[in-house]
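Sample pair:
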Amino acid sequence: MAAAAAAAVGGPQPPQPELPAPGLALDKAATAAHLKAALSRPDNRAGAEELQALLERVLSAERPLAVAADSEEAAAGGGGGPGAAEEEALEWCKCLLAGGGGYEEFCAAVRAYDPAALCGLVWTANFVAYRCRTCGISPCMSLCAECFHQGDHTGHDFNMFRSQAGGACDCGDSNVMRESGFCRRHQIKSSSNIPCVPKDLLMMSEFVLPRFIFCLIQYLREGYNEPAADVPSEKDLNKVLQLLEPQISFLEDLTKMGGAMRSVLTQVLTNQQNYKDLTSGLGENTCAKKSHEKYLIALKSSGLTYPEDKLVYGIQEPSAGTSTLAVQGFAGATGTLGQLDSSDEEDQDGSQGLGKRKRVKLSSSTKDQSIMDVLKHKSFLEELLFWTIKYEFPQKMVTFLLNMLPDQEYKVAFTKTFVQHYAFIMKTLKKSHESDTMSNRIVHISVQLFSNEELARQVTEECQLLDIMVTVLLYMMESCLIKSELQDEENSLHVVVNCGEALLKNNTYWPLVSDFINILSHQSVAKKFLEDHGLLVTWMNFVSFFQGMNLNKRELNEHVEFESQTYYAAFAAELEACAQPMWGLLSHCKVRETQEYTRNVVRYCLEALQDWFDAINFVDEPAPNQVTFHLPLHRYYAMFLSKAVKCQELDLDSVLPDQEMLMKLMIHPLQIQASLAEIHSNMWVRNGLQIKGQAMTYVQSHFCNSMIDPDIYLLQVCASRLDPDYFISSVFERFKVVDLLTMASQHQNTVLDAEHERSMLEGALTFLVILLSLRLHLGMSDDEILRAEMVAQLCMNDRTHSSLLDLISNPNPKSGIIPGSYSFESVLSAVADFKAPVFEPGGSMQQGMYTPKAEVWDQEFDPVMVILRTVYRRDVQSAMDRYTAFLKQNGKFPGNPWPPYKKRTPLHPSYKGLMRLLHCKTLHIVLFTLLYKILMDHQNLSEHVLCMVLYLIELGLENSADEESDEEASVCGPERCHDSWFPGSNLVANMRHFINYVRVRVPETAPEVKRDSPASTSSDSLGSLQNSGTAQVFSLVAERRKKFQEIINRSSNEANQVVRPKTSSKWSAPGSAPQLTTAILEIKESILSLLIKLHHKLSGKQNSYYPPWLDDIEILIQPEIPKYSHGDGITAVERILLKAALQSRMNKRIIEEICRKVTPPVPPRKVTAAEKKTLDKEERRQKARERQQKLLAEFASRQKSFMETAMDVDSPENDIPMEITTAEPQVSEAVYDCVICGQSGPSSEDRPTGLVVLLQASSVLGQCRDNTEPKKLPITEEEQIYPWDTCAAVHDVRLSLLQRYFKDSSCLLAVSIGWEGGVYVQTCGHTLHIDCHKSYMESLRNDQVLQGFSVDKGEFTCPLCRQFANSVLPCYPGSNMENNLWQRPSNKSIQDLIKEVEELQGRPGAFPVSISSETNLSKEMESVMKDIKNTTQKKYRDYSKTPGSPDNDFLFMYSVARTNLELELIHRGGNLCSGGASTAGKRSCLNQLFHVLALHMRLYSIDSEFNPWRKLTQLEEMNSQLGNEEQQPEVPILYHDVTSLLLIQILMMPQPLRKDHFTCIVKVLFALLYTQALAALSVKCNEEDRSAWKHTGALKKNTCDAEKSYKVLLSFVISELSKGKLYHEEGAQECSMVSPIAWSSESMEKYLQDFCLPFLRITSLLQHHLFGEDLPSCQEEEEFSVLSSCLGLLPTFYQTEHPFISASCLDWPVPAFDIIAQWCSEINSFTERHAEQGKALLIQESRWKLPHLLQLPENYNTIFQYYHRKTCSVCTKVPKDPAVCLVCGTFVCLKGLCCKQQSYCECVLHSQNCGAGTGIFLLVNASVIIIIRGHRFCLWGSVYLDAHGEEDRDLRRGKPLYICKERYKVLEQQWISHTFDHINKRWGPHYNGL
């Protein structure tokens, strides 16, 4: 069949005339059916030709279009024509494929035969996928969400991630993942059998598709124009791609039809014959010719050749065996080189010559030029990939190529093609302007190919994958090489990469490197690499490009002008391009059998290092003042050595070089260690911050395993094999502290400033301690290492689980401990305790932390490891502070402890030599000198130095060679010690050796000069000095030189090879002023005696040391005594002396002797004036520093205690005398403190004082609901939320209902607004003068630094407690005495009081402040009122039908009071049972607010006609009703909201109010409320109940307390209301209103009480604020009676024995039955017309539950899966940042421009509509909650935490998250209490862009 098709495709045929014109779809179908039939015949030649002609014609219809794309003008005027032709062609193809049937049916038919067992779903960037480490074989394994949820991964280590570059689902592919993890669909598919595909189904496809693909290729050829040299032509390329969109999509759809179609496509794409016939460009078709020419041009311009005549190049298909290097082909290779250079010209702008030279050297070692520049395409697939690369990997093409991968045959072919184009990919990537996008697309493809071990192995064997990769990487880096300036700048032959180039700066190399790392993770491939010597040589060559890059030169004079930031590129390059492949290779060298590999690597590594030393002309001294942190060759060498000893049982010496090489090897790593100390001593400050950055990065957790660890290990290896004296003196010389190590009290340092000496000395000693005690590569097992790392990190700070995982970085993700692996978790649980996150209300959100267990502090805390791992020096301090705290807490040690000495794991035998450092004379001399200097208080020594000296002595004692025999030592005669200080090299013996005299070189001014010289002397090690016996000069430097010379001579047999001793000028005898002279010091000390004296000095007592074994001989037998393990210097000295005594009897004896001689006090040294001056200066500095510290600490604690009192809500009353107390009648006026000027005084009219307040609009009240069932966040389409049951909605409906039937002005007095957008006022309780405040605001306006808030909007922070505020509420001038008078109860009757109230309300001028005179106070009152109005939006203020009517303002003002009272009630939990002058009282500003509101309310005096007070307290004549028939009636009094009436009445009274007037108003209103309750009850019950009650009550009507019996009153209400139509016309609707329960007298009483309670609560609160009375506390069931008696409704003598009856609180102002009748008649006249509405208005729902946020699901995944793909209801797109409102559940687009309205983005808009400016949104893709408050926003944190109690912002870790109820409660609390502004600190403006 395929052959026939190929034949048919052959020569181009002339178009057949009899073909129908491409017309209707019917014709197409018919033609297709006809052709299919023709082709099915056995002899299908004719049919094939016919089809061929048809395709030729149909598909070449696209030709003109391509030409049009070339020329701009044609494209511009192209119009719709071309597109139509294209679609036509596609239609034809679809028809032909389907062979006359419907295309959809055809697709379905093909799908039925899909045998694919793989998912293979391809996704692009930002797709959410899953990775399960438990199921993955390759670390790159990933699953689409569907396969993941369909599989069973419970308890696995999985995470969700957002794809960076795109990927594909691996479900069903057993090469990449374990079958247990397959999902249900792909488990079944793999086993079941799929029927065979019928031959004729896909027959047409086999004919049509080759032409179609060829057409696509022609198109790509035509469209491609070589970009001009400088201008990228991305525009043109994109245009071509846009035109091709439908074609590629069509191909993509074909791949989705399943396996059957894919195999046809594979055939077409890989068939070489088809390709040859169609594309060769031979034949007479001009079009094809032209396209072939374009193709050749494109090849050429890419620097590739098309090998027509193969002989020139002599390249045969390389057979699998030719992997050894064809070095002999060198000549041939250089021949082709010329071409390469010309094509790569632009890469080598400046360094042309160098590049050429370098290249030649390289080419000799690479296999063959052909890798780089020969490409031959043999199939459609190959050319398609070529164009895909040329067009820089268009997403659509990538997706199509990847969608084909489930076809195994295709996968292999494609992988080979990809490898063949690898060099070309690199070239295109380098030139690309969009290298980031392109990198992602490349990796998207390569990761699918190379993660599969089987495939990688096959391609390695058949296509030389490794050769290609290494060569391509090498060539890539070659383009940016520069000359190295390390060491010998002029003559250096070494080249390094230039970190400033884009290639490194932008990480352009990472796709290629990551592929390389990926294939090295497969054992079979890595083995090939390690066996191939040629490849290793090339690779080492590559690594050496990075050796010594980014060289730093120390600036000595002025600060560097431009701080280069290249260092990050350098570190990233070393980590990714050198270290990662190294870890990959190391992971395969784990067993003994792999020894050979290690030998290979080590061998070539050493060769490369030798070349490097030669290239930079290195002898023995590193160049001064320069350092590079990049020594990848050293590190390769070190890590392979370590592996060899640890895992492969190799003999270390067999892989070590000679001594000379070791000496060279140690120099540069040592230079880095010294430079670290210099950088931390601020010697490099002139190089800018970036040098500190390098020092930190070098030890930072992601880099340390690949940088500092190998360096230290290499130094340990060198130290264990080199002469110890040489090594030690090298260290001190590198650290530049040689001159300091002298016995003399003064010295000159020629290479170091005095101020740096101390820290450099500390650095040197610390380095030695690390070098000698670190065991990471010297014998610790992996688990021990993990444990040590973990302990070090936990000791610095408590850590979260994720930060621990991150800090204990595992160098190579593909080996060793996988995060979350068994060992990690088990070690963690062994060393740490989990601290669950705690929540201080209003405190910061905390995460779940791990903290070290007590026994870890006790036994495992290792300061050395901590020092090695700290990036910031403060972390070391932090670890010590925590250690100190632990010891104090457990009573182990009270003072300031020293770092504890920790026992080490035993050394691996190969490294035993390291301990010789501790037993060499040079070190002992240094230790002796330092101990002496410390004892004598010389300059520049610190406790840290002493600590390290003692640590080294202790290390030496712990690791002493073999026990020395005491006898041998005693024989030692005096003449033994002639040549030097100490007799032997064993520390144990040297400790007791007394040194009598030392000769030192000192400046002439030194105090030592005047002494006489005794006869016999011993020479000082470190000033150069003569010994009495010989005239030999002994100095560290000279000693090191000598040793070096010896070693060199020993190693070089040829005598002529003498190494020139490089005596640089700086080491020559210092001849600078002042002159040095020789003086001789009398010492007479040994190390032991110095230690004992130190003990005295540290303890400050003479003879403080007493050998413990004299009392308790046991000590010597079992020396491990816990009392010595923690403590300070004294303990350390004691511990060392004990160990010394244990090690030898001699020492024990000598210690005892020294202690017996009562030591005379250390003579005070004569201190010269100059010395004194410097010493004093030091001391003064030190003291000043301590003083400063103390001050700071004190300041901090003071501030803390202040903050506590200022912020503490329940602090004692005496805090601010703002609360006006009744207890002190002698105080006449309230006194306020101004927090700005600090003066106290009353508030006056001229200089008013004000409270600092924050006004904010709030809709919290509107969110109350009347049912207890919580609202859930919708997580399915069904669960949408409809907000009709909220308090706000109910009130809105009620108001609009009233406005429909009644007079507008009267409606606006019958309700309160402010349920939504009400203004809430809160204060921090601090007061200030209003004029002070104004100047404060001015200063804020000028100081632009503090802007977390907008000063122009009046925002500021309280000057005292820094609480956020935006207005000042004036305090009303009033005296306390007056207040007390007002509160005296009077005995007037209620009728008199009612009259008084009415009169007072009528008098507008009865106000102490007359409105007419403009005082400062009244101005401020007006301005604050303006602020209050502007706080909320207009729509929340204007409810009147006539906009701007005064009634509106009136309504708004008393509603502000209502809002604040209601909110306070909610803050108290919805009732007043807790009582007390609760927390809110302290901070309340209601009293002041009332004055301001009252002042303004009285400006609008209500016409006495309409004053509701009349209707409440007087009976009217009936005729008055008749007058106003024509206009709308007033609202019946029974429909009024009683609480609103209360506020209106009180605010209309002159302030301050008298208590008895208040009580009078309350009594009157309670009567009305009670009547409303009865009316509502009567509507609620059914007809029978009603008639029953009517009769029972009527009987008792004439009894004495009828007015106080609810049964009587109820019956009267029912009978009155029955006169109207209220109870009629129920019929069908009966059940809706009526509650089915039978009413008992208890339930009726409960109903009446519940109806009245909200009013009583608000009234009690009001009374509490106005008169300052405490609220009583009570049980919930007795709340009603307690509140009513507190309000004076209950007579005080009322006894509560029999059950309490609410009616007993009634006190009717006028006869009850008359007034009730009057009220009911108003209702009746309304229900005449509107019975239904009349009933609805009577039943007021007043029992609102507390407001809550939506209830969230337990698991975050449920929210994420539902919302992250959900489309927005406004713009119907899937938002980029979806968010959900947690108050009402609305789904919004965060920052989405799609839903923007009048420059407001959707979240901001929603926050205004839903929360009056406050919005709480959950960002679905980030799991974080964001708060919008007005014009500011802040990130609040997350309420979902993972199993370790941590947030996962942006879902970076993707672990399962669970709701944290406590956090959610905190969030809800802050919402309800309106404290977002105070508690959250990081606010920023959102500019309406959220």
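Residues 1769 and 1787 are 8 Å apart (CA to CA).
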